[in-house]
Amino acid sequence: MIEAGDGIAFSGDGTDGSPLVIRKSGGDIVLIPQLPTDAVITGDGQYFFTVPQSLDGGNITAVNLALTGAVASSGATTAQITRRRGGTVTDVLATPATIDATERFSETGTIGVPVASPGNSIDQWDILGVDVDAAGTDAKGLQVIITYAIPPH
Question: What is the residue extent of each domain of the chain?
Fold first, then answer.
């Protein structure tokens, strides 16, 4: 394994017997279920993301929500992240992520966002889903930021 810096590692040399694999040790996935001008819509499966090979074996370390349009004038906006592996659906978060009224980010909210285990592991072909449980009044432009880490091999 050759460390390339900035959390990027290379293995193999690209020949038939040793394919070149490039892996980043961590980063963010930004899911944009709605445009900044769209009102936040509640319901399960508002957005799906299929985990690619480059994230195989990773762990979700944090999930944050953001409103890129208008913040809610009242009421909280909450969402759960699910992981579908085969026929089993598992909640990733111990409690839904929450953006308080008049706030733009869940990170600044009164409720922390613990990541549940074992729901935080991700493998190639897992499907991550966004279930929006509540939408604050006038909230627009939901984004979901999933932070992940890939353990060294």
Answer: 26-149
- Omega of the bond leading into 118 within 30 degrees of 0 (cis): yes
d(CA 38, CA 98): 18
State the fold for domain 26-149: Jelly Rolls (2.60.120)
**What is the per-residue pLDDT across 81-139, written as a single tens digit (0 to 9) for each?**
999 999 999 999 988 999 999 999 998 877 767 787 778 999 999 999 999 999 999 99
What's the rounded Cα separation, in Å, for the pair 137 and 71? 8
Half-sphere exposure of 98 (CA within 13 A, CB side): 14
In the structure encoding, which two tokens stand for residue 52, read together?
């690619």
Distance, first Cα to last Cα, the chain: 9
Instruction: At 1, list the tokens.
Output: 């394994």
pTM (2 d.p.): 0.79
